[in-house]
Automatic annotation (TrEMBL):
Taxonomic lineage from the root: Bacteria, Pseudomonadati, Pseudomonadota, Gammaproteobacteria, Chromatiales
Coiled coil spans: none
Gene name as annotated: glsB
Family matches, as InterPro entries: Beta-lactam/transpept-like, Glutaminase
UniProt-recorded name of the protein: Glutaminase
Top EC class of this enzyme: hydrolase
Length: 310
């Protein structure tokens, strides 16, 4: 079915959601952050926001989940806007081929993270934000409120504190980068910012709407605001295509063919240039930290609507 002929996607989304539900049991909810281990596994939602202002959804599309690594997209756009090309002296743009929280490559590569969407890269970006904003946590939430057009975006304190308490591996990444001179601010302050942005509570519909600018050359369609340059929208999409699904990015490009980003809260967002944004959410994760049901939903939808870029 060509996407131009779609008037009501909701019934298609509902059918796909129902078909995917047997997959709940093939994944496992993230438990290395204790607050996330308490989330009920058998939940799912999918939403599609289009550039012409429509939203289609099915399942628990207005139920909040933890944004987690998807927050790395927003942090990156803020840091690109503040620092310009200087950012790329401090973080690379290559896929890592390693798990999202891997530490070994960072030492070999002298404290320069492979890309801004693995944990090391996002902590580096958090350092840029802490160093360039007087109140970076508030600035992050303000940015998301502006993009969604909703005030009800906040950081879940329970998730924030849980990660602060159990964030030893991220602390190791941050101190290793600091030892190479690639972190400017104090490590505790950088980690607080990073955990706070990961703890953002959001739902599928809000998330899909918030990222429409990446499908529209940097311009948020409902406000006509230029959120980032056309060149930076291209660059973010390029990084998401090669690295957004971590060491499953190759498989995702092979099967789906869209820039995408996952989070251990169970959400995946996929950008469809010139069309819109798909978000899917379901807590059980595969061994790469990507939601099993959300992957399947996005794959089926992209397949059925012919959305692949390749
Ligand atoms: O730092 C962490 O480990 C988490 N706050 C975020 C990791 C994450 O979402 C990886 N995504 N699949």
């Amino acid at each position: 079915m060509p996407i131009t002929e779609i008037t009501d996607l909701s019934s298609l989304l509902l059918r796909m959601l129902t078909q995917c539900q047997p997959l709940y049991s093939s994944g496992k909810v993230a438990d290395y952050i204790p607050a996330l281990a308490q989330v009920a596994p058998q939940q799912a939602a999918v939403a599609v926001a289009t550039l012409d202002g429509k939203i289609f959804s099915a399942g628990a599309a207005q139920q909040n989940f933890s944004l987690q690594s998807i927050s790395k997209i927003f942090g990156l756009v803020m840091a690109m806007n503040r620092l310009g090309d200087g950012l790329w002296q401090r973080v690379n743009m290559e896929p890592s081929g390693q798990p999202f929280n891997s530490i070994v490559q960072l030492e070999w590569e002298k404290g320069i993270p492979r890309n801004p969407v693995i944990n090391a890269g996002a902590i580096l970006v958090a350092d840029v934000l802490v160093s360039h904003y007087s109140a970076s946590k508030t600035a992050f939430l303000t940015f998301l409120r502006r993009l969604t057009g909703e005030e009800a975006i906040y950081a879940d304190q329970q998730v924030y504190l849980s990660e602060l308490e159990h964030g030893n591996r991220n602390a190791a990444l941050a101190y290793l980068m600091k030892s190479f001179g690639n972190i400017e601010a104090g490590v505790p302050q950088v980690l607080e910012h990073y955990f706070h942005q990961c703890a953002t509570a959001i739902n599928c519909e809000q998330l899909a709407r918030s990222l429409l600018f990446l499908a529209n050359r940097g311009v948020q369609p409902h406000t006509n605001e230029q959120i980032c340059s056309r060149r930076d929208a291209h660059r973010v999409n390029a990084i998401l295509s090669t690295s957004g699904m971590y060491d499953q990015s190759g498989e995702f490009a092979f099967k789906v063919g869209l820039p995408a980003k996952s989070g251990v809260g169970g959400a995946i967002v996929a950008i469809v240039p010139q069309f819109g944004v798909i978000t899917a959410w379901s807590p059980p994760l595969n061994r790469f930290g990507n939601s099993v049901v959300a992957m399947q939903l996005i794959q089926q939808l992209a397949d059925e609507l012919g959305l692949s870029l390749f």
